[in-house]
Amino acid sequence: MDIKYSVLDLATVIQGHTPAETFPRSLELAQVAEKLGYSRFWLAEHHNMISVASSATAVLIGYIAGGTSTIRVGSGGIMLPNHAPLIVAEQFGTLASIYPNRIDLGLGRAPGSDQLTALEIRGQNYYQPHNFPADIQKLQTLFSAENAGAKVRAIPGEGLDVPIWILGSSTDSARVAAALGLPYAFASHFAPSYFLEAIELYRTQFRPSKHLAKPYVMACVNVVAADTDEEAERLATSLKHLFIGVITGQRKLLQPPTDNMTWDPLEEQAVNQMLAYSFIGSKESLKTRLEAFVEKTGVNEIMATSHIFNQAARLHSYELFSQVINELNTVSQE
After folding, report:
1. What family is it from (predicted)?
2. In the chain, what are the domains?
């Protein structure tokens, strides 16, 4: 094993707090992650969600990158149908100019919200067909030095090395990533159903490119680590209540943990299905399950997202997770 480990953050707003209070918590997490050896810190574009404050993703990436010095910062992801490729190229070209060799551009094909909100974002373009692979190729062209002679250029952006990742939760995105020879990040933290099928398809159909010689898979998973299994399960009740809001449409700010979960059996079944790739427990519990996960999937990188109410507990969870991955890497190299 030589597994990289990273962070996915949604700038999650907790009960009793505001986005203004949330952003410094995200920056503190990024600074701690940098010290702990995390490879990258990504932020996700979502809209019209009361508990998610990362909607202006490129702006927040700049804030995080400005408060750190070595960790890569990027999008997990930018929802490409919401934006013109030229605007994305200019925004990330600007970020890459200010923070060279530290910016990642993860791209998704979903709206990052409900259909009504997507209509507000896209306007009349909502009714136009969207070609995700073609827009990715437009971005690659705009970033290329060879585009200098074109009538439309991305300034800044042109000639810059901004790594593009394909994000997905289905086999469709796997095919796109494979065909374009790009790294693939799967959203197994909320859409586990097609994970194994998608990464197998990606690997078998992968075509080497100038960007990537062989397949590279990153899995995003939920992680709630604590000193004991019991404490981790208690902390994870905040995550479970968040997912109840997702499936019922009754979203709330991230709630404090509770000693006992009281929920409808159908809700419990649906939430547990969505949280299939969640690692909740002590270091020893995580180590056993993560080792089995890596052996089964062969992933190159694990991106952890941790919806934990208390900031100190959240930072401690990421510390324990990094220790587990480092110990597994060390053992495999002996």
Report:
1. To bacterial alkanal monooxygenase alpha and beta chains.
2. 4-230+279-333 (3.20.20.30)
